[in-house]
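Design job #97: recover the sequence.
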């Protein structure tokens, strides 16, 4: 996995009760602190299971399409069917999540994904799936995931205390990255033993932990002033707020610049890993995921020592160095070590930007702001993947990694004008 009203806020109106935490932050707070809270602990465990199922599904759809047809276009359409909904429905999903009860909205989107995954699993097991039905059901799953995402992220401040929000976001990201490493490997094993259809049914089952949590969750209502009656009014209010809020603009600009250049890792790592085989590729992803988990553990201490802006800048410089090194290192051990460091930098950057996105707006518009953040992040990754693939095709893989690393450093110029808050902010 990881979406009320049409009230427009001008910069002269009362702003959300946010305050900057510059001192007296609890030194004893642990990265694992959010797991002490029953609501977050339950949902985090269920979501990690769901993430693993999603990565199994992604691996299985690509493998199944390759077994159904040799057409490169059809194989490419599977990935396109997964990512296209990001550009079509992310912003409307955020607006809808602010207009309706988020708990019910999430129950609807999760149930939609169960039905789509189960239908694909059943058709596959009975030998009734075709290339086009696979594309259609993959699109349906992607549609449900994108509709789910803004609301999913917007409920995080509701299930964990404010002082643990940053650690909760980091743990969510670490869980996703760990699932990224485990899911494809587990999916390959399941497909080898029982076939793609069974992997799809396991993905359908993986959503039930989240559904049970949402069904039992007694959410405190967050009524919005003057609820929007039309989707376009809610979208317009979100854009007006984003234009008038410096923190929103800073998060969106910084996220777009980073994602565009950092996407080279995800776009070209399979080619770098090709000499080491599929097992080697899985291990490289595993070390990146372990680095993200280690970074989540270290992040609370780093946030106490550095401002949000300084932390993102330092982690970006290190990630640029990692990016350059990936294409220069041939030894598998060194690649594992450098990607472990890359995972630590990745979590520091993404978690800091994400938590700022979580609290940069009041509750009544939070899902719309998060939908903009998600669109910029995913759009930058998609555009960057295409860009670096083209660069590598014309100039070679090392040149693509070098240019992306240089782009990350040059892109830090945006930090001068678009600064993040001095320290993490809390909702008062």
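Job complete. Output follows.
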């Amino acid at each position: 996995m990881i979406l009320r009203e049409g009230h427009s806020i001008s910069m002269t109106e009362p702003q959300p009760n946010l305050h900057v935490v510059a001192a007296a932050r609890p030194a004893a707070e642990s990265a694992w602190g959010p797991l002490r809270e029953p609501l977050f602990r339950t949902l985090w465990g269920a979501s990690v299971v769901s993430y693993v199922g999603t990565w199994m599904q992604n691996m299985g759809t690509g493998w199944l399409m390759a077994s159904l047809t040799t057409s490169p276009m059809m194989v490419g359409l599977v990935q396109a069917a997964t990512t296209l909904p990001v550009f079509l429905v992310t912003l409307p999903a955020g607006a809808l999540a602010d207009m309706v009860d988020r708990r019910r909205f999430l129950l609807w989107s999760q149930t939609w994904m169960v039905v789509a995954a189960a239908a694909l699993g059943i058709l596959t097991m009975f030998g009734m799936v075709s290339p086009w039905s696979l594309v259609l059901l993959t699109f349906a799953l992607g549609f449900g995931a994108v509709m789910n995402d803004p609301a999913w992220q917007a409920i995080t401040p509701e299930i964990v205390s404010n002082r643990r929000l940053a650690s909760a976001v980091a743990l969510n990201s670490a869980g996703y990255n760990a699932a990224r490493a485990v899911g494809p490997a587990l999916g390959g094993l399941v497909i080898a033993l029982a076939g793609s259809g069974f992997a799809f049914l396991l993905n359908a089952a993986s959503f039930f932990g989240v559904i049970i949590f949402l069904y039992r969750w007694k959410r405190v209502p967050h009524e919005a002033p003057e609820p929007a009656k039309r989707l376009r009014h809610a979208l317009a209010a979100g854009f007006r707020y984003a234009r008038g809020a410096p923190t929103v603009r800073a998060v969106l600009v910084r996220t777009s610049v980073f994602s565009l250049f950092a996407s080279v890792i995800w776009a070209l790592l399979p080619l770098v890993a090709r000499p080491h085989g599929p097992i080697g590729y899985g291990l490289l992803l595993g070390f990146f995921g372990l680095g993200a988990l280690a970074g989540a553990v270290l992040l609370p201490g780093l946030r106490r020592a550095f401002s949000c802006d300084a932390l993102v800048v330092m982690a970006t410089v290190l990630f640029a160095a990692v990016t350059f090194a990936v294409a220069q290192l041939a030894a598998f051990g060194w690649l594992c070590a450098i990607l472990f460091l890359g995972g630590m930098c990745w979590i520091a950057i993404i978690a800091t930007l994400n938590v700022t996105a979580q609290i940069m707006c009041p509750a009544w518009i939070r899902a719309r702001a998060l939908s903009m953040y998600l669109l910029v992040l995913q759009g930058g990754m998609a555009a960057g993947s295409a860009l670096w693939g083209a660069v590598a095709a014309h100039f070679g893989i090392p040149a693509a990694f070098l240019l992306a690393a240089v782009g990350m450093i040059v892109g830090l110029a945006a930090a001068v004008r678009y600064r993040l808050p001095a320290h993490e902010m809390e909702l008062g």
